[in-house]
Structure formats: structure tokens, C-alpha cells
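Lesson 9: reading folded outputs for more than one chain in a single document. The general rule is that every protein is listed as its sequence immediately followed by its C-alpha cells, and records are never interleaved. Here is the first one.
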Amino acid sequence: MFFDKVNKVKGMNHFLLPTTENSNDDMKYGLYSVEAMLNEMYKLGCSKNNMVAKISGGADIMQINLSAQSIGHRNDEFAKDFLDLRVFN
């Protein structure tokens, strides 16, 4: 979730998987969907300098794989890395 404190614009994204090896621009992948959402926010006048972000989720509700390789953990790590490298660097 992103919030531009100056323009009072909020964006929320729910992706299923962090990335894909495909060139398929599919909204279920965080790499594509977060970029698309931020681009729409920038079109509305939002700025990285005015934004705050919150991450929620990352659960493994099926509790099948509680390792560091679970989808929930991978999504959480992707979100943190994305913020560090592409938004708040």
C-alpha cells in the first residue's frame, strides 16, 4: 500500500506471486502490478518523496511450506526489496 501525503492519493495492490521468468505482463505478479500501480499514481501527480508504504500479508495460510521458500515469504521479501531498490533508494 502506498500513500502520497501531499496529494492524498492511496494505492493498494494484492499480488499472488513476486516475479515471473515470462515476459507476460500479468497483474498477478508483483513486479508488474506494483510498477503499474505506481505509474498510475505518478500520472496523478504523486511523488516518491511524498510517499509512505506499508506491507501486509505474506502469510502461508495453507501452512504447507513454512520455510523461507514459501510463497508468502517470497512475496514479503520481494515487497521489501522492491521498496528498497525502486522506490525509496
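And here is the second record, again sequence then C-alpha cells.
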Amino acid sequence: MQSESAPLIIAIDGGGTSCRAKLLRPDGQVLAEAHAGPANVASDFETSCTNIVAASAILFANAGIGAERLHESAAYLALAGASDPKAEPRLRAALDFARLDLISDIEATVLGALAGEDGVVAGIGTGSFFCARREGRLRRVGGRGFQLSDECSGAWLGRELLRETARAHDGLRPHSPLSRAIMARFGDDINELVAFSLRASPQDYGRFAPELVAAREAGDEIAGAIFARALDELARSLDVLEGDAPGRLCLVGGLGATYEALLPERFRARIAPARGSALDGIVAFALEQEAQRATGRAAP
């Protein structure tokens, strides 16, 4: 039986939009849940720390536990941007927890989706990543950020749409109903489209994705060509990973279901629903680490 004085576990899944958090006892009993603002340590370290502390304080308040115990707890964080090796020592210096362990949001997503089993996870939302898990080891393709990768993602699709629209405007390809609608949105002024592209974030580009999906389904030529390229990129990434983990394939994220219906049969036959979320993944990681510490097998 756990002692009431045993360190409590804070598990946080933090991304570019929000934090989701749970407070647990070492035996896995959930005491409270909470939400707070974004925590991407690569893009905004200070705000990430502020929101991690805020989520932790909300957890303790929701559980009816005095905030004085917060600094005695063990924090397990799955954060966007955590692949930078400098992130963990910076967080340890900035945050007042008894222990702190950090993994990336990608690793937590894979752990949650596969529930500890082998397989491949394709995470396709505003950004994207592709990751295989085999015997506890991960191999990743993509997920290097919007400027370098994020193929198939909503941001990538939106940028491709604006590129093809500009090409159509310049006479390098025929217009389609979708590209004409995009030009009309910018007042049929190519300079306005260019100005938008110079200030647009991945989230801004991603807002075009639902329109692009609908246009492909309606038979739009430009939308069809963009999705054909996206599917080629997706298949190439999955083929690279298949040798590492040929088992279950989980497609997660806002565009996962869209691609699931379009993939070749050799992939569709392996698709299985995700068993859990990134928050489930960081909780599982935390409990495993605590169990290993209890038996003296975990790193200090």
C-alpha cells in the first residue's frame, strides 16, 4: 500500500495548442486532471514553463492537495520540441520538482497509440511524423518541422495549394475551381497571396486543408494532384519504416482518417485504431519509470 507521503506523479502532454495533465499516485490511481496553455519548448520555452507550472497547480487544486507538495512530486513531461537535448537540463533548472523526466510528444503519441506493442504510427495533423516501434526502440521519419519536412500534413497541403494557385496564375498550369476560389479570396491579386505566404504560420496554411480535402472529393484537378503527391510521400515513409515494425499501423491526427481511406490496400490491411492518446503514453511511461525506481532498476 502506498504511503500518503510517497511522491505524487505529474504527467503532462504539452503541444503547440495546449497542455493536458494528470496527477497520479505511484500505483496508477488518478487523482485529478487539468488543462492549460501550450508547451512547445522549442518555440517558446518561457511560456512552456509557465503553463507547465499552471497545469501542475490546477492538478493539485482539483485534487484538494496542498500546493506545498507540488515541489515534492515527480514530473513526467511529453513536450513538443523535446527532441532538443538541451531542453531537459533547461527544464530541470527552471522548474521546481523533486524529479523531472522528459520525452518528446512524438514518443508519447507512439507509446499511447501502440500501448507498448510494436508497429508504426503516422501522426498527421497540422504537422506530421512517422515512427516505428520495435522491441522498445523507436525509428522516426520526418517530423523535423515545417521548413524541412511535415509532408502530408495540413500545413504542407495548404502550402502546396498556394504554390499551385500561383503557378496557375502565372500560366504554368491550368486553373481549377479550387485555385480560382483561392485567387478570389485574395482579391484576384497575386501580390496579396504572396504577402500572405511571407507571414503565414503552419497553422495559417493548415486552415486550407479542409477545403482541399472537399475539393479532392469533388474531383478538382489541382486538389487531386496535391493529394497524389501526398500519398506518394506517405507511402514512401511507411515503406521505409515497414522493415523496422511490420505490425500494426495507426494513423492519428486530424487528417489520419482522410489518408486511411486513400492508402493502398497493402497498408489498409494493417491499419488498427490507436489504443490511447499521447497523455496515455506519458502516463504509461511515468508509471513504468516509477516501478523501475521502486525496484532499483531505473536511472537516477
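What the second record shows: The longest helix spans residues 221-242.
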